[in-house]
Amino acid sequence: MAEANARPRLEVHDVTKSFGAVAAVQGVSFPLYPGEAHALVGENGAGKSTIVKMLAGVHRPDTGTLRVDGADVDFAGPADAKAAGIAVIYQEPTLFPDLSVAENIAIGNQPLTRLRQIDRKEMTANAERLFRRLGVPLDPSRPARGLSIADQQLVEIAKALSAEARVLIMDEPTAALSAVEVERLFAVVRSLRDEGAAIMFISHRFEEITALCERVTIMRDGKHVATELVADLSVDDMIRRMVGRDLSALFPKQDVEPGEVVLEVDGLSREGVFKDISFSVRAGEIVALAGLVGAGRSEVMQAVFGVDPYDSGTVKVHGRRLKGGSPRAAMAAGMALVPEDRRQQGLVMELSIERNVTLPRARKLARLGLLFGGTEREAAETWTRKLQTKLGRLTDAVGTLSGGNQQKVVLAKWLATGPKLLIVDEPTRGIDVGTKAEVHRLMSSLAADGLAVVMVSSELPEVLGMADRILVLREGRIAAQLTRAEATEESVMYAAMGQEVSV
Amino acid sequence: GGTTKDSASNTSGGGQSAAAADPNAAVKEGLKIAFLPKQLNNPYSDVETGGGKVAVEELKGEYKLVGPNDASASSQVSYINTLIQQQQDVIVVAANDPNAVCPSLNQARAAKIKVITFDSDASKDCRDAFINQATTEGIGQSLAKMALEQAGGEGEIAVLSATPNATNQNSWIEVMKEELKKPEYSKLKLVKVAYGNDDDQKSFQEAQGLLQSYPNLKAIVAPTTVGIAAAARYISSSSYKGKVAVTGLGLPNQMREYVKDDTVKKFALWNPADIGYLAAFAGANMASGKITGAQGEKFTAGKLGEYTIGADGEIVLGPPTEFTKENIDQFNF
Amino acid sequence: MTATSLEAPPSKRFSLGGLLKTRELGIVLALTLLVAYTAIDNSRFLSGQSIRDNLLNTAILAVMATGQAIVVITRNIDLSVGSVLGISAFAVATLMSNNQDLPMIVALLAGLAIGAVAGLVNGVLVRYGKVPALVVTLGTLYIYRGITYSWAGGSQVNADELPRHFLTFANDSILGVPWLVLIALVVIAAGSVMMRNYRIGRELYAIGSSPPAAELAGIKVARNLLTAFVLSGALAGLAGVLYAARFGTVDAAAGNGMELNVVAAVVVGGVAVFGGSGSVWGAALGALLLTVIGSALAVLDINQFWQQAIVGALIILAICADRLVAVRIARSLRKRDAHV
Amino acid sequence: MSDIDLDQRPANNRSAVLKSRLTSWDSIILVLTVLVLIIASFTVDNFGTSRNFTFMVLDLLPIILIALPMTMIIVTGEIDLSVASTLGLTSSMMGWLWNQGLSIESIIPLCIVIGAICGVVNGFLITGLGLPSLAVTIGTLALYRGLAFVVLGDGAVADFPWNYTGWVTGTIGDGAVPNVLILIVVLALIFGIVQHATPFGRSLYAIGANAQAAHFSGIRVARTKFWLYVASGAVAGLVGVLWTLRYSSARADNGAGLELAVVAAVLLGGVSIFGGKGSLPGVLGGVVLLTALQNALRLEDVSGQALNIVTGSLLVLSVLLPNVTSAVRGNWHRRKLRQASATSAQ
Ligand SMILES: Nc1ncnc2c1ncn2[C@@H]1O[C@H](COP(=O)(O)OP(=O)(O)OP(=O)(O)O)[C@@H](O)[C@H]1O
Ligand SMILES: Nc1ncnc2c1ncn2[C@@H]1O[C@H](COP(=O)(O)OP(=O)(O)OP(=O)(O)O)[C@@H](O)[C@H]1O
Ligand SMILES: [Mg+2]
Ligand SMILES: [Mg+2]
To answer: Is residue A354 part of a domain?
Structure first.
């Protein structure tokens, strides 16, 4: 543990950054000490990622300074920050799909032979060493294209570790990881910390913060609220300072009497991805799909919705068989899918918020086949207000919103279609506690209104708190079906891993 | 029902009622005479229009040269339209397509502009006169004769032409083929007509292809300046030099090198500058009302002397000149 | 995706690398079939003179394809190469005709320099002007050609105005290999090694694979992109000198429309138009294939009018074959993952 | 300038949005077009005449028509370079069919169908087999042009009926309004409405900006693109007919090289080559601007070479200028902020 009077390795001093009229960060200061893990918390859009990008040399502060080892620095680009010993894991993965995993890890830093050529053997060996340390079974020679989000995140982590940085900054690295992987990551980070690196860690999961970090900086609306020792604060304190008010219960699940069967999946298989998946969902029910990352949960639900093909099996909605491979047919049958990757699958970043919200419904909103702005705006207005989305104007590009608010727009987009069956894939990934509670309340009340909900989630507390029934997937097959009463952390993890675990 | 090829009436309209010629009228000064070659930046047509410029200066008129960068009929039409807007007195044009430029040329004639074609004729009913560099027969026969000489009286010969649809080249080749049927040519065998599209590189490769397909080739006849230069260049740098003769129509400046290194013994061409010169005079005379384009009318074309208009408004420049090692240095174009 | 073939550890027998190599193998195969078929029809197609002619014809296209491949790998494109060839060919031909005693090396350097400047302009506009490469180079395609036309007017540099040593350069050979071919081989080899084994090459692949990630990784994107465009321009400039030496007659239209051939060669050679994958030597093979198709059709005495149609069909066929390979790779990746 | 706009997030403040809308390239180009037309009518002799207007409309006819579907295709992030060759092929076919003795009334629809078939082939290769459109259409560019030569060879067919050729070059009631202008207006209206006020049009922008998200939203990406190529082919076929009639000459090499002019016009009109951005009015402005400028410069005896330079420069400037102004504005804004904070610190 660092002494309070040690010199900070990196210092953020009174920095301000605005984008147009949005003041993303206003006068924030905090220190990062060597040998200490420092958490940065705040609601969606509080400005956390903006601070990360300033430290990384991506953005230049409008005012204020950054100091490394007490000296002012002015990063002209990411290369400068890298040279100053700062390694960054960004909120969104930044891999090169065409390069091999080993090259992704080594890029800019490849081991060279005497002729200044790249030493491929050494490079692969490095990657293998890192993966062994992280306990990841990835082949360093495969291309990064086609990696699942979780695997991408793991490669990002390996990349940051390989830099042997003096400062390691991680912007929500665990958002896509399951408990086991998080634990492995933490073990590695702790050993780095003990070797004297300064760590900055961003997460919306407080149990992770208390498990890893010594000090925490809380932000609200771009402003600095407090920097304290984690030991001195309770989680409730943190949350209160973060959102500026008290929060109600996190998992407000209402009990609902399940209605008729809405979705019936029978013997669904896709070669190499999942096999023989059968389950059904009733109106008013929330069914969770749990499992380790890479178990194939997303793939199953994408096949059900028709964005992916499947080889055999049937999907029935309200007893009627659904044409495979056609999202349009699924939508017509009353299905909606909130996908796991909002940047790639959920939203069209360049388009405005209203266009995004009305995208799946454009044909319904048209009069005589023609669309005029008014109806679209109204529909978008209604749903973004219902979800309390923090936005400037509906005509702004959706890419200008913070991660959490983008997620709300995706939800708005699909709820606006008035679905009978809602499939949500990692609905609260990267969402702050306040919003998370809102999303949960929303799902719960939707279910109460008779909506059938399928929820894919890697967060055990969420699964246990929200679901009426839990399907656990392992390696593309259903490993267990648990009722709300049967489900405990142990039983779910046991089924997911196929062995006894000590959580 | 409907309009078919057979039922269509093709009175393309336009034109102007031919006024009577007044042989005694003076040739006006200050006439605006515009030249529109097939394309700009073609060395051959530069020489032609250069001759036109000299003539316009002698006539004390206003000379103008416009043209597209690509030899397409459509871009030419845009230029004809511009010339109409500018109210030129005479348009001297080398048509990229005999029909495609017709509607525009007729619009020009309707706007009292005289239209003279040179180099490559437009349809008869949309121009007032055509300056023919030589009769088709004359050139075809001369090509056949040179081929016979160069091949040494017998063997395989091939033609390397311009584009497959080049009007001039095709009619010369026709005549040449007719000529080859005569008994004195019986030992000569035309094995192939290849097309270099008047593109230097393509012509070069076509020459190459010819020799690979016909190893016994005795002569390549290229009735186009681009083709003959490319063929000569290929032969002079390959192992076929001295074995395969090259002849045809070429520019002395381009061919000088190959004539001197004996790749080419003899080729022919009219003097292109004279074409432009004659065209300018014909146009000026017509715009002054001295002639109308009817057969039999006579006019004087400066240093070239007197010309008589032939059938269909054709004015023939004269016989082509043959170039050899001995005389080539007397020419500079 | 060939990028990854190189990392495959040699220990794995049936490695991805082996499979990936088929991307270029496909072209080699097509080439072999074509040559074999043509040679059976007309054995002179394999004669020394014919092979020499084909290689000479390929050389210029291959030099340009090398530069183009590098640019396309960075997820950009350079459509101005035909015009750069034109301006360089005309400039160098004029230079040589005015200074008969200048050695060949000066001509080569002049061509490289002119091309590099043209490429630099492209690169600066793309990088600092933030204008998409297709727009920039479509614009400079017109501009560079316009400059050449305005400068040259109707004039033409003829073979007899050029110094002897300049003209013979195209045909002279050392050890039986013509200079032109030798230069092309050196350019291809240097390009391949640079793209495979040096940091700059890998960074160019990275930039093409994901431009924003490249920025974040601290890669000097600006410098690298400028390098790519300067290389493409310089090689087009070099091609201009080779063109002038080979064809002897140069006017303002030299290389007109060549950009489509070059892009076709690169695409046929397996370089993905979305950047990040493909190889320089693949592009060179593409250039060879296109040239051989052209001359084979001439030798096979295929109707002039059919030739262009056949070239088009073959280009499409090549892309289809390439796609087939890519799909196979993707499938094998998925299978492998299933076992993890 | 050190800021790297990784998310490509546009500025979202109110006045900036307004400013960026007013200074967006499509509106600039429309203003610029009107300016050029006005200035040229006053300063260039013979520019403002009704005959010149007819000539101009005829000159921009092929580019503007082909640009209509091309705009949509580029908005979806694809490209079609085979349009000019499709035009050539239909022109050839038109000549050939005419020689076979078919009536012109049946040849015209047949030619449009032939164009559409060319589009079907492109569409199948691109959406069915998933090949990159740039590569495919370079291939079909060669293929269709080659087929055009196969059909008609070196010949040209010229004897099309006068009442048809005359219609294309003629004006309404022999006034100032060319007949083909009606065609342009009708088609532009149809394409404009489809692109900007229908669900189909909306989906094009979504596809261009993020095809995967569009797929997840129930948009049939492949099918949409497929029909765009068919439309592109059909319009190219129609233009092939019009071209043939205008020049009363069916030839295999008709319209060669037109594809680059069309793409240039579309890009000049503010459509992003990466897809997802652009408007049809901007493109129409781009085509008119280019044609008017060329026409005026030609009347002023500016050479064709200089026209090349003007076209190229306009193209580059059209994208460069908006970028430069926004960068300058951003720098200025930052400097002001720094100054403000410096003075407040004192
Ligand atoms: N490039 C940009 N352009 C415009 N606005 C931006 C940009 N980057 C961030 N913002 C705005 O700045 C604010 C802070 O965003 P930031 O991404 O830092 O939030 P965050 O704390 O990381 O949120 P989350 O937890 O959701 O990731 C938000 O209002 C966001 O909309
Ligand atoms: N594009 C792809 N190509 C090949 N294999 C893939 C692809 N995407 C996913 N996979 C494989 O499919 C399986 C399941 O993928 P995925 O990680 O999405 O499952 P998940 O249970 O939904 O996990 P997550 O928590 O990331 O959502 C994994 O074996 C993964 O490697
Ligand atoms: Mg964030
Ligand atoms: Mg998933």
So the answer is: yes
Average pLDDT for chain B? 86
Give the C-alpha separation, B255 to B257, whole Å.
Answer: 6
The alpha carbon of residue C132 and the mean position of all alpha carbons in its chain are separated, in whole angstroms, by 21
By CB atoms closer than 10 A (0-12, 13-18, 19+), residue D250 is: buried
Mean pLDDT of C53-69: 92
Interface mutation vs chain A, best among D9, D195, D217, D277, most A CBs within 10 Å = D217
What's the sign of the alpha-carbon dihedral A78, A81, A85, A90?
negative
Same domain, A171 and A234: yes
- What domain range includes position C95? 3-339
Task: Report the CATH number that the domain containing residue A426 is assigned in CATH.
Answer: 3.40.50.300
Boundary-marking domain end, from A243, A259, A289: A243
Residue C180: enclosing H or E segment and its boundaries? Answer: helix C179-197
CATH of residue C53: 1.10.3470
Ligand 1 centroid – CA A46 distance (Å)? 7
Answer yes or no: is the C-beta of A458 below 6 A from any ligand 2 atom. Answer: yes
Q: What is the pTM of this model?
A: 0.81
Rounded mean pLDDT, C90-106: 91
Count helices and strands (H / E) in chain B: 9, 14
Q: Which chains touch B (3 or more CB pairs under 8 A)?
A: C, D
List, as one string, the DSSP characters of A385-420: HHTT---S-TTSBGGGS-HHHHHHHHHHHHHTT--S
**pLDDT tens for each residue of C257-272:** 888 889 889 988 888 8
Q: Mind spelling out the 3-state secondary structure of C33-48?
A: HHHHHHHHHCHHHHCH
- Quote ipTM for the complex: 0.78
Sheet holding B188-195, edge to edge: B188-195, B155-161, B217-222, B245-248
- Out of B41, B205, B238, name the one closest to residue C298 (CB): B205
**How is residue C327 written in tokens?**
């799909």
Domain that holds residue A171: 10-95+147-243
Give the C-alpha separation, C321 to C316, whole Å.
9
Helices and strands (H and E) in chain C: how many: 15, 2
Mean confidence (pLDDT) of chain C: 84
User: In chain A, which residues have pLDDT < 50?
Assistant: 1-4, 500-503
Q: How far is A167 from chain D (nearest CA, A)?
A: 21
Shared domain for A394 and A502, answered yes or no, is: no
What length is written for chain D? 346
User: Tell me, what's the pLDDT at C15?
Assistant: 44
Distance A296 CA to ligand 4 centre (A): 7
Residue D267: pLDDT band with limits 50, 70, 90: confident
B64-91 per-position pLDDT tens digit:
888 887 778 888 888 998 899 888 999 9
Chain C residues with CB-CB distance to A94 below 8 A: 210, 212-213, 216-217
CB neighbour list of residue C214: distance below 8 Å, 6 or more residues apart = A96, C203, C206, C207, C221
Structure tokens at B290: 């001295």
Instruction: Tell me if chain B has a CB within 8 Å of the CB of C295.
Output: yes
Same domain, residue pair A234 and A379: no
Residue of A139, A148, A338, A477 to mutate, ligand 2, most atoms within 8 A of C-beta = A148
Domain residue ranges of chain D, discontinuous segments joined by +:
2-6+24-325
CA gap C117, C140 in Å, rounded: 12
Question: H or E element: which one contains A12?
Answer: strand A10-19
Considering its fold, how many domains does chain C have in total? Answer: 1
Q: Does residue C334's CB lie within 6 angstroms of at least one atom of ligand 2?
A: yes
Which residue of C lies nearest to A75 if distances are taken between CA atoms? Answer: C218
Instruction: Assess whether pLDDT exceeds 90 at residue D189.
Output: yes
Residue D70 in contact with residue D262, Cβ under 8 Å?
yes
Q: What topology does CATH give the domain D2-6+24-325? A: ABC transporter involved in vitamin B12 uptake, BtuC (1.10.3470)
pLDDT at C19 over 70: no
